Amino acid sequence: MLDGITKSRPCLLIPGFLIALPALSQAPSEKPEIRSLLGKPLHAQQDEKGTIAAARQKLEAEPRNIDHLLALGKTYADLWRYNDAIAVYTRGIEIEPENAMLYRHRGHRYISTRRFKEAVVDLEKAARLNDKNFDIWYHLGLAHYLLGDFGRAVRAYESCLEVVRDASRGEKSQTDDSFVAVADWLYMYYRRAGKKSEADRLLERVRPDMNVKENLSYFHRLLLYKGLKKEEELLDLANASDLDIATRGYGVANWNFYSGRKDRAREIFLKIVSGKHWPAFGFIAAEVELAGK
What we know:
Elements: E1 11-14, E2 17-20, E3 34-35, E4 41-42, H1 51-61, H2 66-78, H3 82-95, H4 100-112, H5 116-129, H6 134-146, H7 150-168, H8 176-192, H9 196-203, H10 216-225, H11 231-234, H12 242-258, H13 262-273, H14 281-291
Antiparallel strand pairs: 1-2, 3-4
């Protein structure tokens, strides 16, 4: 099984379930993983380190172990093999139909594959099972936003902020990294929903001295919205990486859109989707803008 490709689909026989795993392959299929909302073929990455085989081996040894199943799903997702990841999470749900994390991860990968309605179904189910999980509300808000349902997107992200507040009670300050990750998208949702006063109040909580270590792109976007940074400080379309253009560029494009510079916004959206980092949320959102979804 470690030579790269098998012709059949190995199965894990579990009492009550016949679990068919995706075919083992070191290399992604020549067939596109998905097509973008603009019709462009999008491909998975190579498994150069054999991580899939290693993760499958652990699951085959303990086929009812949900941690191993989640790990295999993550391994597929890390290589942009999202359809295989979805299949793995689906099998997990057959084993544990009330496991919130399985719905959370499958919902995330439905977003990656541009299946936003299915993402909402899974993430709403996850939220019913666990309403204290940051990632569930975060991805649910995004799925609603990508469907153009800004009202539900706002409510999901407000719930996400409640989780951040609950987690930070008793501490001197709330987790700045988590806050800025939510606040950036929530600001955009408020603006798209026509709630500028709410957006302005949200920005009042953003300070340039916040202790942000991981979500710097979101933080810098918020500082741009506050007028504390300039567009050229955030975005160099000629030299930035595809991921940076997608992550920072979507916020900058939206900011231009709100400010009446729609041609500039479109220019940035087009630059984002010309790159290769197609799983990035900013890339997906730019597709939605250009496709008129």
